[in-house]
Batch of 3 targets.
Target 1
Amino acid sequence: MAKTVAHIVVDALEKAGAKRVYGIPGDTINHFTDAVSKSDLRWITVRHEEAGAFAAGGESYMTGELSVCAGTCGPGSLHFVNGIYESHRNGAPVLLIASDVARTESGFNFPQEVDQKKIYEQHSHFCEYISHPSQARRIITKAAQAALNKKGVAVVIVNGDMFSEKDADEMDWEVYRPKPVCRPNDQEMTDLAALVDAAKKVSVYAGIGARDAREEIMAFCEKVKAPMVHTTRAKEFLEPNNPYNVGVNGILGNRAGVEALENADLVIAIGCDFAYTQYYPESKKIVQIDIDPTHLGRRSAINMGLVGDAKTTLAALVPMVSAKSDTGHLEEYQEQWNKDLEGYLEEGKENDPNLIHPQFVANMLDKKAADDAIFVSDVGTSMVWMLRHLKATGKRRFLNSLLHGTMANGFPQAMGAKLAYPDRQVIAMCGDGGLTMLMGDLLTLVQEKIPLKLVVFHNNTLGFVEMEQRVEGLVDHFTGLTNPDFSKLAEACGITGWHVENSNDLETAMDAWLAAEGPALLDVHVNQMELVMPPKIEVSQVASTALFGMKAVLDGRTKEVVDLLRNNFLR
């Protein structure tokens, strides 16, 4: 019996493992939403499609399984763009059904007509039309296979009238998910082992591509007495219970992480695609191992580039290298790492109850949150407090917009994570700027009964932008925000809310917030003048901040300069 394209598409999505579809219903997908209503897929109606794409990405990032978005015509499908780019860069397997006007009107500049392929093919692994009803299952299956295996977005474009077409659907197309192993050839492995043996001080720089190689990395570090530095995205996978871990490299990192790479004779960078060239050591020190040959040497010049998956390559390398007995290099950065951690705790202490530092909030959240909590942060300063002040336990999960760097990702991605893991504590760490950009989807939490916990770092400014301007020696402009009491706003939406302005009140409020039934929001007024201090203070940074101070005084803003000093340097 012939089936409609809409029912074939829905059935193929279910067989590919999808559980939810995020979107807003409308004319060109009405037949599709009707088919969804008759399936086991759950439709999540969002208030803005961008939030739907973020939520789908959050779900898929956490589960590794397929999630789906569906958009109507040009406007609806276009609204997904930013969230789709975020999901693709995060490696989240998301499939977007981007509908278009009827084929009879296509090519005539019909209202709402948009060339979806030109928009999405630049940032997807698969982007194709269903051009004939007989293609429906095949296209959806191949799109899902691309998203799941290549880890990113696939887009299927469907003209609205296509959904009601019929096909016998006789070919049984399947999604295949092979898991090959890969390592460098024998000669390359021999050359690599010789480099390791010749180096007195070896450090490992591991990224999210080494997420499955934690035990192999630890075995290598033990044998050659190497400290391990990790990228921010690899925190949850490589940091927990790892005695060789010395933290993070880069502007968001810590001193031990930066210096362990700077002062090594040899750095083994594995599964690591960290973008900022200035934080890499000189090229003669670097061996890069990556599963994707196009990644080799694209961030920094290197001495040797090898292709292999992290787990297989390190498992083969460990028996080939000679054991080292000198522990000085490792111990130096283990000690510095402990000092860095003590510094993070010190930053979170409060002497003045009327001044809440964001680190104080993050430290308390770290203590109060569940051992297997899922944390999702907005981009900007809330991301810094997450990465520096929340401990990875081996069960906790973390998600930030580290590659796309977009505002407003926090609570929508957390929404998808909570739908995927309804029995786990999921916490969105929101900036006031990020939250207000997609604030309408607070109503989605209520409508879809999603018991998400949101904490707002409320500082009335685009904090990271303000800090960037000041570090450049500029007087900050256009970063101030006029905000409501977010707890009252939440309550108006049907969400339980708390508002805190005194640090003595935070613990009681946080306990009640975490214990609340249903969605809940904790609005905390934090220090507006907080700086994100880099791992090492350079003379140019000090000079630039001093230049800001001079300009601000001349601009009649002396009090801000005093507050900046008092809140960051004199406490």
Target 2
Amino acid sequence: MKPRILSFVAAVIAAAACMSTQAQSFGDIPESQRERLMPQLEAMAGSNPVSSSSEGDAAAEQQSASRRTSGIYGPVLPEQQQLAIKPFGSELFSGGFRGLRSDGLNPDYRILPGDQITLRLWGAIEMDRVLPVDAQGNIFIPAIGPVQVEGVSHSQLDSIVKSAVRNVYPDNVSVYTNLQGVQPVSVFVTGYVNKPGRYVGVPSDSVLYLLDQASGIDEQLGSYRNIKLSRDGEVIANLDLYDFLTNGKLAHPQLQEGDTLLVERRGPAVSVVGDIAKPYLFELDDESLTGAGLNQLAPLLPGVSHALVRGKRGIMPIAEYLPLKDFGNTRLADGDEVIYLADQRSSNLVIQLEGAYLGRSYYVVPKGTTLHELLNEIEVNPGETAWESVSIRRESVKEQQQQALDDSLRRLETTYLGASSSTAEESAIRIREAELITQFVEKARQVEPNGRLVIANEGNLVDVRLQDGDVVTLPQRTDAILVSGEVYIPQSMVYVPGKSVADYIDAAGGFSQHADDEHILVARQNGEVRDAGEVGLRAGDQILVLPKVETKNLQIASTVTQILYQIAVATKVALDL
């Protein structure tokens, strides 16, 4: 017979008709976004950490504070982090432009004095010569005379020479020309480059080839937007590498002997971090020194909605937090720091299911939805789902469990590893205790809490508000009891009503030699962990036998035992010593 499928809420309401308790929200910022932004926001927009009374917490606070510099308007980016932000375009000269030199024989190449031209005539007259372009820009063809070719493009050369030959030999003469080689030119590269000097190229070379030979632009001082090409003391081209970086455009006149390429000092620059693909220092000209100009350059991530601007106007610090549309009209200044943020909260939550249920695994629900409201949409088979043992895995709870465990371990190390000894015998004992503590702390730091939020209270389900990313666990109904920890044969056994914890431990081979028979825990399917002496067993429970702390120091034993309890609650694991 097909098992009857009924709405989960029917069972829940029957068990918790009168329960309605509000739960505290832990915030809506996703952990992935926090992890990405914290290294930047700690320094630029964070708040001072909460002080702790312990020496270990104070040391951690001091280490965190060392990464920031406080100011009137809060922490600002310290100089070391500012230097770590590279200028936009700094990767340009790591691509090897100097290894991609042009041969100068492209169709648009303009002929210059010193170039070599091959000329072949056959028919009424025979000739096969290599003719140099003289200082006046001519080639001299015997029996025909000088022909002006300076400034003629490579693609037009053949027609110019043919026209000159046919003025003398109108019939029965075929003409072939070829630009055999071009005259090298030397160009001075100076200004804010890493290795100023005189570099050789060909007239059709890109300025990128010459800048790369000079080991690129000085990242701290040089401009990527204000580069001048001068000839005979007159500027013939102003180059902006941002056009090349963003649009692939970099047009400039053909180079000539003695040209000068000057990289000017960097203009107004703005550092940009936050929800962008990569932090950069952007150089802005007068026309783009606005939020709109920066928006076009910065590689914003999807969903960016606000910009935090921090800087100085005169001697006064300023700080503004603006929606992106208003930021577009904001005038920026040299040295400003801009943090882009995706600060729009979704009106929906994504909830995942795990365990024994029917139907889909993910639900998108409106903010403010409670657990009971969600369970009303989920179908289960009451014979397979232990609906009374529902629990929630929550990221914020996991973070709190991890933080509490880290704090306890840090206090343990601070309190006992640094203690002094007055006698040699006491010193030997301290060394053994230090070894014990070090090994224990190393193991404990490898433990990962599960973030389990217990929502059952004496058989009733508390109706908590859901948070984005919650994983609702509907455990499989089972008839097993798991015995683990410090027993000789950890195993699962069938639940038999009336059998005690001691009966199951005896069936698992009894206590191991490291067991602490006074510290036995019972972990429920709903995540609740209780002392074995306080509760009766039921199907699905897990018996955890904790290890004995092998030390005569009662304080250390008490502290380590407390941490073992924390680990058992957070992971359902009895960590061995």
Target 3
Amino acid sequence: MGWSTRSLGCSVSEQSVRQAADAMASLAPLGYRYVIIDDCWLAAQRSGGKLAPDATRFPGGIAGLASYLHSKGLKLGLSLSAGTTACSGGGPGSYRNEAADAAQIKAWGVDYVKYDWCNIPTADFPGKNVQQIAEALYRPMRQALGQDIVFAMNNEDGSTVPWLWGKDAGATTWRTNVYNKPINGTYPDMVAIWEFNQLRAEYAGPGSWADPDLVQACRTGMTETEHRTQMTLWAMAAAPLILQTPPQQAPASIVANPKVIAVNQDPLGVHGTFVKTDGWYHVLAKPLANGDRAIALFNESDRAAVISARLGSGRYRVEELWTGEVSSTTGELAAQVPAHAARLYRVAATDADEQAPPLVTFEADPQKFPGDDRPSVLEPGVPGEIVTRVTNTGATAALRDIEVTAKAPQGWTIEAGTPARTGLLKPGKTFTVRWNVTATAPPGSYEIEFRQGERTATAVIMVAKGPGPGTTYVSDLEWTAVKNHFGPVEKDTSNGDQAGGDGRPITIEGVRYAKGLGAHAPADIEYYTGGRCTTVQFFAGIDDEVGANGSAGFEVWADGGRVAYSGLITGSMPARKVTANIEGARFVRLVATNGGDNAYYDHVDFADATITCT
């Protein structure tokens, strides 16, 4: 646990490291002790054959900095490269200098070495593959450092497969990427890295842990909910908790929860594994040293969903570690988990004498069918219905005096269409309230907050207007979601270059079209149709602005299924007519996929695209 200077890059200095160390005073009692200088600390050349710090950035030297950190109860980490030069900032690598560099590191009082995979002289290893080269370079450095220094193998190139041999090589931690790419701070990237990390769970354990990269808390790119999710997933994986945000900026509400940290730092050191997953909704479990279990419910999707797990027979004390809520249950753990959120529980077997209220599942706008991952939709001015449910999941005692209240955006109308209060909710029973809601707002995403006692459940609502009756050009409608490879999707022009509005008249093999969508594959454009439309039709082709280059496939998706496919179309082909039956679909997506070559020229046109509705 600690902090890395990665976000400072080559602006790192002795002063900035000391300032960060001072700021870590409040986090140190929780376990955040390592201050890791990630590149740009080395002088350009060795001094007398030894490593030397950059005199401008670190005028006081590394030994003095180590002493300063040690006086505060902290530890110092440095990055080195297994290749000929450092990854960035200049300076020598440790290739063929492992013993001397390790001796220097120890003489300075360094506690942690992050050993990078940069500028590797692969030509010096004829006949060896990347894994064999990595083993030949990493094992000697670990042996030279000895066991008192943390050895973090940062060979991100998946071809080195460090999970297969890192433990035998003495690595304290090893990276789990499949290709060389640090975490970029976005939710999709964080989830992808976590998924790679879970695939390595069987190789991780006490003394040699999987490292999915730095904690992103407070950095832009993710919401507070998503940052809390990362902390939950990293805690379950017994992963290093190395902050990328400077300690003085790290939000205590996310990085300083002692009960979450206790799960991460549990003495068993076990990497949590899946209990069940369907690709969107995940249950993970992790045994703890005192016999308890940590259980995480993670909702990867874009819609709130109830996720549940069986705990086995008996009675259990359940504590949600982010909220502190304690309850009891006789074998089932269930909760509504917001989109992109994770709930973390500590579960302990208990007896009937321990007093705790029964576990309650309070959900708003439950899924209408399995796999439903979109928000519910209300059309402006059209009455709709939102459902809430209170379930006595714990089945240990009855709940009394249950009342549900609602708060909608200003100007909306919302009232209970069924009773919103009940005097008694027996074990295993559900109390359902149906709410009549009318939205008065322009298209967009909104929230309705429901409360039951101290509990809160939030329904995320999409306000959207479906197409009117008859046939309408798609380019005259507003989409509900859009993805495009380069630049924005353009209406009634080609994709153009990359800036918005730089498109040209839609032209396919010399034929011009006045209406349509110009995109760059891969592209995905979604429309709300409300179950009232029957047909989508367009001419699919690669725009003439890229000549004979480019290739793509054009698809139409109705809710969760593909209902039309154009086949492969190249830049030298005429437009191909695509007609799709979309009867009953709530959402329709126009999709263009890359044809298998470089996507640079894939300027795709949905020419004269129309939708017909009743």
